[in-house]
Write a structure and sequence with these properties.
Mean pLDDT: 91
Distance between the termini: 30 Å
Strand order of the largest sheet: 5-6-2-1-10
Number of strands: 10
Oligomer: single chain
Order of helices and strands: EEEEEEEEEE
Number of helices: 0
Largest sheet: 5 strands, mixed
Low-confidence stretches: none
């Protein structure tokens, strides 16, 4: 699994949607994360969240969007989930809270 460089997040609250604006860089390697776990919320990472080695994703914790389901995580450790040969692995990551 690649090294995770400068993993940070900030809190946002925009028009009834709350969550975390998360960003980090991926180290060497071609393996991409499929999901993120942050503060007991699990959310998939889409191709549109990845730009080269940079990843930026909004982890939604509260929303008024119809039919959007927030997925609580069974894992209590913050990190990134990778799919390796059909098996999912959680790589623990120490995301640092930054101010807006």
């Amino acid at each position: 699994m690649p090294d995770i460089i400068n993993p940070t997040y900030s809190i946002y609250n925009i028009q009834g949607e709350k969550g975390y604006d998360v960003s980090f860089e991926l180290g060497d390697g071609n393996l991409l994360p499929t999901a993120i776990v942050l503060n007991n919320i699990k959310q998939g990472i889409l191709a549109e969240n990845i730009d080269g080695k940079s990843v930026n994703i909004n982890v939604i914790t509260e929303t008024k969007i119809d039919n959007y389901k927030i997925t609580p995580s069974e894992k209590t450790t913050n990190g990134l989930i990778f799919n390796i040969n059909g098996k999912y692995y959680l790589k623990p990551v120490d995301f640092k809270l930054t101010s807006n």
